[in-house]
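Re: [ENG-882] Designed sequences occasionally contain unexpected residues at chain ends

Forwarding the minimal case from QA. Structure tokens:
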């Protein structure tokens, strides 16, 4: 009897872990990766005029990535309740400020976050609580998240003005110095 239970549990564990492995592989294959083109996304309007001015988009209107006034866009897909996103937050905030201190780089590179599944109130709280210094737009209905292949968070991309994915990273960025080097290299700095 004990042996039978053990075999059943082993099969259940094997089935579940295999299923999760397949789900992870499928998830990883569906998201935009380096060398791919971004889908045509319609994003919700930025919350403030300052955010609109930074991105170079019209106030109060949805916009596309191609509307952003930048040669390169660092796009961060975040979850308001994602612990990894919160752990990465101070590091990516420092990266943003470092880019802003380099005038040539700041002119070419913009940052934008998409808070998937978040209401405007949740996103506003996240911005205030974690002092996010760049625009965060919401994707409350997960429409954009689905168009991106439903990546886990945090998921970061660097996109060219033409919509080409030049860099991608799923999970916490362990080496922000290398990421800064990637941005300076792409921008010719």
């Amino acid at each position: 009897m004990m042996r039978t239970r053990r075999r059943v549990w082993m099969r259940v564990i094997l089935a579940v872990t295999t299923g999760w492995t397949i789900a992870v592989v499928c998830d990883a294959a569906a998201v935009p990766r380096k060398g791919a083109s971004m889908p045509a996304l319609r994003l919700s309007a930025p919350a403030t005029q300052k955010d609109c001015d930074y991105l170079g988009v019209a106030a109060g209107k949805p916009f596309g990535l191609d509307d952003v006034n930048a040669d390169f866009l660092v796009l961060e897909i975040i979850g308001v309740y994602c612990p990894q996103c919160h752990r990465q937050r101070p590091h990516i905030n420092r990266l943003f400020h470092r880019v802003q201190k380099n005038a040539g780089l700041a002119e070419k590179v913009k940052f934008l976050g998409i808070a998937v599944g978040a209401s405007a109130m949740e996103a506003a709280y996240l911005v205030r609580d974690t002092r996010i210094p760049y625009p965060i737009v919401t994707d409350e209905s997960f429409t954009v998240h689905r168009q991106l292949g439903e990546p886990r968070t945090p998921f970061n991309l660097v996109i060219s003005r033409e919509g080409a994915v030049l860099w991608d990273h799923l999970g916490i960025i362990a080496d922000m110095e290398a990421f800064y080097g990637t941005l300076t290299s792409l921008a010719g700095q």
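QA comment: On inspection the terminal residues look reasonable. Strands lie at 72-78, 109-116, 136-139, 155-160, 165-170. Proposing we downgrade this to a documentation issue.
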